[in-house]
Design a protein that fits this description.
Number of helices: 19
Number of strands: 17
Distance between the termini: 8 Å
Helix content: 40-55%
Shape: globular
Largest sheet: 8 strands, mixed
Oligomer: single chain
Length: 537
């Protein structure tokens, strides 16, 4: 199956009806926390309420919280040698992440923080208690202690495991403010998602190689400190715990958490530190395409996938501003309904139209994987070709979303694509805390490509460009690797033109008589199938 404008439009309208804005329930975190706590007391089960876990699809929780982004600065040194993308190198990268994911989760549990996500070398967590706008300073003080504890735990873990081979520093960004919490997962795979500027801003502060803790001006002002000014200034001024000030020349103060406490934490989960963080036994196998048949719940270090594939990042451009606008104007139900439909449609294009597999949603960004080939090898040429057509179909589906859904006409979608050998597994503490992980240079590069794109651009990485057939290469600027406005109709017309002169002569006449975009897309779909675009034809 390939993409169809008619099918896509029907899906979007169906997705919109599963969570229409008139049934979306908006609740404050404080109210939900009190409600669940009362329910837990009434049931006498003794469990603490988890107000940000298993949020129903039709619910949105308005949260005043402190967002903490932790970047493991030493991770990219594991992947920096582009010429050595071997299983052995990727195995070391996974061992590195597995070790530090486990360490960070111990501190997250200790502080009753909400772990939003691990993504490669980044952790996103949020401090939401004590609840209420009046407790912002207390949450920030707790977040600073949490950040110090994370930094110390990562340091101690790196020193303790394999003679310091996994030693790394941390760069931590912190911002505070109001956001909207929703659940972007399903069933046994819940994905808490926080929408709004605090999470995005904390991530920007954590982006860089210089270790330390970096506070936003909002956080500084809530703590009674002087504002730094621009984002550039905030990104270069390190919080100094010992002096309670920020200084560009300051260094990170020593954490209150001790080695004895770290060992105590490991004892709490019944394992010795050396056992908890020992090298995991990563065993790789190929997954026979299509990747949509990957079952994440069956993956583990001992049952991991490793194969050449394409990594795709598709990010909604302008979405954070849209979220902030909906917060200000009380249009949260419309926001949640729109996001639900957009998310499901982009994931459906990847999985159902092109046999790919979603890894996760990261904020408003979809990370997906795609491969063509056999049980023995990946057809890199066909993989790149199909991935570019998939990205073009995503843009066309997003254009349909903009036409159908209210309030999102000014949004765009930026897409990055890169090819390379990539492991896929689950990492960290076993059970519900384990994390889906697909990490490689291709993954990092495709994310960077997407981040550098404008809302109407698609970027093809150098390795993908080199493997692509000439017809695909011609869609992109040879210098920048980018294409502007590349939707399904344009891609299919131009690919058909390249592969068949007869189709090139016939297509303009058929398309020129169409009355609308849907008819044009349908004609283009027929053209791409005739040129070999549909591998099931």
């Amino acid at each position: 199956m390939s993409w169809s404008a008619t099918r896509s439009e029907a899906r979007i309208r169906k997705f919109l009806q599963t969570v229409p804005k008139n049934i979306v329930q908006v609740q404050s975190f404080d109210d939900r926390y009190s409600q669940l706590k009362a329910r837990a007391l009434a049931s006498r089960d003794g469990r603490d309420p988890k107000p940000l876990v298993q949020i129903p699809p039709s619910h949105a929780i308005v949260v005043d919280g402190v967002h903490v982004y932790v970047q493991l600065t030493g991770y990219h040194s594991v992947l920096q040698d582009a010429q050595r993308q071997t299983e052995a190198r990727h195995r070391r990268a996974l061992e590195f992440l597995h070790t530090h994911y486990s360490a960070c989760d111990l501190i997250i549990r200790e502080y009753d923080a909400q772990r939003v996500d691990f993504h490669g070398s980044r952790l996103h967590a949020v401090i939401v208690t004590p609840p209420g706008p009046a407790n912002e300073r207390r949450r920030l003080e707790r977040a600073l202690e949490f950040a110090q504890a994370i930094a110390r735990m990562v340091e101690a873990t790196g020193e303790a495991v394999l003679n310091g081979e996994f030693k790394t520093e941390t760069r931590i960004g912190i911002d505070t403010g109001r956001s909207i919490a929703v659940n972007s997962g399903r069933g046994a795979e819940p994905e808490p998602l926080f929408l709004g500027s605090p999470a995005n801003y904390a991530a920007k502060l954590a982006d860089g190689n210089e270790p330390g803790i970096y506070l936003s001006d909002r956080a500084r002002q809530a703590l009674g400190m002087l504002a730094a000014g621009s984002l550039f200034d905030q990104r270069r001024q390190i919080y100094n715990q010992r002096h309670g000030v920020v200084s560009a020349a300051g260094t990170l103060g020593s954490s209150y958490i001790t080695d004895a406490r770290i060992k105590s934490l490991s004892a709490d989960v019944g394992r010795d530190l050396e056992v908890l963080f020992r090298e995991a036994n990563f065993i790789f196998h190929r997954h026979t395409p299509p990747l949509r048949t990957i079952e994440y719940e069956r993956l583990s270090p001992a049952n991991s996938i490793h194969m050449p594939l394409v990594s795709i990042f598709a990010d909604i451009d302008g979405f954070t501003k849209y979220v902030d606008y909906c917060l200000r104007t009380n249009q949260i139900p419309e926001l949640v309904s729109n996001l639900h439909a957009i998310r499901l449609e982009l994931a459906a294009v990847l999985k159902h139209d092109f046999d790919g597999r979603k890894v996760r949603f990261i904020g408003d960004c979809l990370h997906g994987l795609l491969a063509e080939g056999t049980a023995y090898e990946t057809d890199e040429r066909e993989t790149v070709r199909r991935s570019v057509i998939c990205a073009a179909a995503m843009r066309s589906s997003f254009d349909l979303c903009r036409a159908i859904l209210p309030g999102i006409a000014n949004l765009g979608i930026a897409i990055g694509i890169e090819l390379g050998p990539t492991p896929i597994t689950r990492l960290g503490i076993r059970g519900e805390f384990s994390v889906r992980c697909a990490t490689s240079k291709a993954v990092s590069d495709s994310e960077e490509l997407q981040a550098d794109c404008e809302g109407d651009q698609t970027a093809l990485g150098p390795r993908a460009f080199a493997a692509a057939p000439l017809a695909i290469q011609r869609l992109f600027d040879a210098t920048t690797g980018r294409a502007r406005g590349l939707d399904y109709a344009d891609a299919s017309e131009r690919l058909s033109l390249d592969s068949s002169r007869a189709a090139a002569l016939a297509a303009p006449a058929a398309i020129g008589t169409s009355a609308g975009w849907t008819t044009r897309a349908a004609a283009s779909e027929s053209a791409i199938q005739n040129s070999g675009g549909n591998r099931h034809a």
